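Progress report, Aim 2. The chain analyzed during this reporting quarter is listed below.
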Amino acid sequence: MTSILILNGPNLNLLGTRQPDVYGKETLSDIEKLCKNKALKISIDVDFRQSNHEGILIDWIHASKDAFDGLIINAGAYTHTSIAIMDAIASVEIPTIELHLSDIKKRETFRHVSYIEFVAFDAIMGHGAAGYPMAIDRMVDHLNA
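Predicted structure tokens for the chain:
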């Protein structure tokens, strides 16, 4: 069975209360339910995780190499700063989608830089919580191509 790891970075645990005008009113738990329901509907496995700690995210990425078919990552602010996360993704060599609730290319200029885009085959941004099931569909299509 296809298995996808969905990682969420710093501050995403505050969704629903953190700048809802930018990130939406859905909580991370709401988004996890969306992902689990989508996975059930299309008969795949998803593992949904969040950490505010860069090293933990890197450890999870390293462990994904032989455990998952694909990686979807919303690295939060680490998108713009973490060469280490980029290198970890490159090292495991599994298909990766970069995901953001907001469109980072239409926000502050410092958010326009993404290290993740160098190692992801696709990016989904600006669709709010709906971007997560979209990313799952895109990953499954990629894996089945």
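The chain has one domain: 3-144. DSSP finds five helices and five strands in the chain. These observations will guide the mutagenesis work planned for the next reporting period.
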